[in-house]
Amino acid sequence: MNPRDASLPLRCWAEIDLAALERNLRLIRASLPAHIRYVAVVKADAYGHGLQQVAARLMHAGADLFAVANITEAAQLRELGPGWPILVLGPLLPEEDRYVAEYDLAVTVSTQDEVSRLDAAGRAAGRPISVHLKIDTGMGRLGVWHEEAPAMAGLIAASPHLRLAGVFTHFASPDDDPAFTQEQRRRFLAALGALGPAGPAPERLYIHADNSAALETMPGRSPFNAVRVGLLQFGVLPHPGSFLSQVRTEPVFSFRTRVGIVKHLPAGTTVSYGRTRVLARDSKVAVLCAGYGDGIPRSVSNRASVLIHGVRCPVLGRVTMDQTVVDTTDVGGVACGDEAVLIGRQGGAEISVGEFSRWADTIPWETLCSVTKRVPRVYRTALGT
Ligand SMILES: *Cc1c(COP(=O)(O)O)cnc(C)c1O
Asked: Is 373 annotated as catalytic?
């Protein structure tokens, strides 16, 4: 975040409730069998919530392992927690290999090329490198194709410079295709079985497959002994109507701005760029101090509402870079400086990340990653209720 005069008020900010984050981790844990280890996924600046504060709180709450997307994120995290276990989920560039030992990371391997490069990196470092073998069971992205997994495990086992620390897979459609998810589980279990005696004892490995959405279909008894949780720990459901609402996680993130001006416009006036909205009645509009430069996508133009004085106020016309116009005709006493909630609670009302994402024709993951760096993250840490 750019240095700024801390006495300046906030015009648009994200509020992050770290106490809720901690409660969420504990609730998710409590909903799983006791032996399941918790891999906290904190890629993309902890889904836009801020890596530093989020990682510290998750470790405090009992995360077993952090997962990040790449070496740069891993290096940042290593600086925050010298002893924290870290898994890099994404592939390495050749020039990045040497940092794996330097930062004491576990890394994902999918290919023979990666095995031989990491073997060389481990030899150069003089100590073995921890790897998680990723198996492609139908995602078609990272991982060794499941039929070739035993051969790849053999290569890892044959290297004195590599230590197999985990085996995992990733689901393509856990939220809407239980049959294919089941098939992916079947392929994964078959591949695990085929690792045979060459594979080390399962209790010494992290065996993981489930992300947030897949937790719904996780079998009670299985060799899986870890889960990789991202979205759910932030109190956001992967889709509306998810069974995971029973876990009762709470939203961690809210997105807020303030009213810049309030004014009256006559019926027939058009609002904002492109004149996509014609006022049907004499209206009182409020111009908010935030736009797509802050992460309100243009796609919510004429679709989203915001909360002002606890009342839903529809967005009028196009969202612009720095301002968004909303209809406050039916809300009494709106004035310059009043808070407007884009995502979150106000009074008894709430706009969830999910609802906002549907207005934007996107998914909650993208909404959280799209809040820009102009928006300060403000942390609430109290262990309230
Ligand atoms: C991002 C990611 C996750 C976490 O997914 P959520 O749906 O946010 O829980 C798990 N595994 C992998 C490989 C990922 O890239």
From this structure: no
Instruction: Extract the tokens encoding 200.
Output: 């080390």
| CB-defined site of ligand 1, < 6 Å | 41, 43, 89, 170, 211-213, 228-232, 238
158/211 Cα distance (integer angstroms) = 30
User: Are 230 and 266 in the same domain?
Assistant: no
Number of the ligand 1 atom closest to the C-alpha atom of 228: 10
d(CA 251, CA 277): 32
- Specify whether 292 is catalytic: no
Question: pTM value?
Answer: 0.96
pLDDT tens across 111-163, in order?
Answer: 999 999 999 999 999 999 999 999 999 999 999 999 999 999 999 999 999 99
Residue range(s) defining the domain that contains residue 87 = 32-234
Residue 133 and residue 97 share a domain = yes
Contact indicator for 287, 257 with CB cutoff of 8 Å: no
Calpha distance 215→174 (Å, rounded):
9
Closest CA to 117 of 135, 94, 101, 146: 94
Residue labelled with tokens 């949780």: 229
Q: What is the CATH number of the domain that holds 128?
A: 3.20.20.10
312: in domain:
yes
Structure tokens at 51: 């890596």
